[in-house]
Amino acid sequence: MRDQHLPPASDFYAWDDDLGETPRGSVLRSEPLEGALGVPGAHRAVRLLYATVGHDGRPVAVSGVLYLPAGAAPATGWPVVSYAHGTVGIIPEAAPSLRPMAEVLGHPVCGSTPRFLDAGYAVVCTDYEGLGAAGPHPYLHGPSLAASQIDAVRAARETHPECSATWVAVGQSEGGLATLFTAAEATGVAPELDYRGAVATAPPTEWDTLSAATSDFGRILTPLVLHAASYHDPDVEIEGWLNADGRVLLDAWRTSYLHEPGTVLAVFAELIGKPLLALGRGEASDAEAAARLAATVDFHALEVPRGHYDRPLFLAEGGADEFCVPGTGQRLAEALRDAGNTVEYHFYADTGHLDVPYAAIEDSMAFIARLFGDA
Fold first, then answer.
1. Which of 121, 191, 130 is nearest to 156 (CA)?
2. C-alpha neighbours within 13 Å on the C-beta side of residue 200
3. DSSP summary character for residue 351
């Protein structure tokens, strides 16, 4: 069964008033961030709480951070990068906006945001539904992720009108999935903005291969994949698919987060090499149980859109990815091209999951510069 309601991480993230007909992207609360909570190159940093829609289509409050470059904004305003982060957890305390980015394990915003700021772009980073604000987070729920990423741009422009209406979406891992959904929806959802295109690095694009991940590090996400499936099918018995060790890891995810020292990673370190899924009759390994999981649970309704994308897309994957099976990104790129979309695909051999955005930084920066060419 789906995880139950969790309270917000702090008073800033709490919003009990009925959002009713509040326009999407409306800023509910903001506060400046100082010192270590910023990132190198940011002239100003502002934490935001804004209105969007959640996984169930109802209004929710979501948080994030806006980083502004130094100097005066150009006459047309600073172009905006809406950045979607990778997996951090599912509880409110996992929100990246709560702590210095340097403490967020594998958070590529640390490396890419200074580059964006140096290029004269404003950067807004959503936390997603259920991270910071009341949770839990509907992990890998594409429509929810996209709503948060799109409406972050609206919130940035409301608090700082010097941010341009011109924007691109960028995301890594879970944020890569967010960015793909955003790319498919952006112009229709926010026609008042000038959406130019998207950069998605290491996105999970095939649920059957993701649910069957068998690499040692990749299996740390096994409980979260089940948690994600429960948002499509509330009857998915998360605990029933896991053995005793898998339930220990699930409990760690339900009470801590990836970048908290000594918690999820410490628990998982004790479980490396051990099965996490409950074995059915005749099954001898996690891989066999994972194959049954992929065949039993309907993940396909949650896969990325493969129809029309009306702006260019940059898609990158690594040849040594521990979470997303190498080649899945290429299959998506080919399918999208066959559907008539403009896709720039990059494959970085010997590159692991967390390193893809770093390997792609020069290629992706050049791509973004072309998108913003006349901004």
1. 121
2. 30
3. -
Longest dimension (CA), the chain: 68
Residue 358 corresponds to which tokens in the numbers above? 């770093």
Residue listed under structure tokens 């940059």: 314
> Using one digit for the tens of pLDDT, what is the confidence trace for 94-122?
999 987 765 564 454 556 888 999 999 99
Containing H/E element for 114? helix 109-118
Instruction: Give per-residue pLDDT as tens, 32-57.
Output: 987 656 677 788 999 999 999 999 99
* DSSP H/E element including 185: helix 174-189
Residue 231 carries which side chain, given as an amino acid letter? Y
Q: Averaged over 289-305, what is the pLDDT?
A: 78
Of all residues in the chain, the percent with pLDDT exceeding 70 is 91
Look at residue 211 in the predicted model and tell me its pLDDT: 57
**Region of residue 120 (left: phi > 0; alpha: psi -120 to 50; beta: else):** left
Q: Where in the chain is the domain with CATH 3.40.50.1820?
A: 11-206+303-371
Dist. CA 77–CA 75, nearest whole Å: 6
Candidates 3.40.50.1820, 3.20.20.450, 3.30.70.100, 3.40.50.2000; CATH matching 11-206+303-371: 3.40.50.1820
Listed in sequence order, the residues at least 6 apart from 250 whose beta carbon sits closer than 8 Å to its beta carbon are 223, 226, 227, 238, 239, 242
Q: Which two tokens stand for residue 18?
A: 């009925």
H or E element that contains 62: strand 59-68
CB of 1 within 8 A of CB of 230? yes
Mean pLDDT of all residues belonging to the chain: 89
CA atoms within 13 Å, Cβ hemisphere of 221: 24
Contact yes or no for 128/87 (Cβ under 8 A): no
User: Which token pair is 331?
Assistant: 């299959």
Lowest mean pLDDT among 96-105, 196-205, 324-333: 96-105
The amino acid sitting at 325 is V
Strand, helix or coil for residue 151: helix
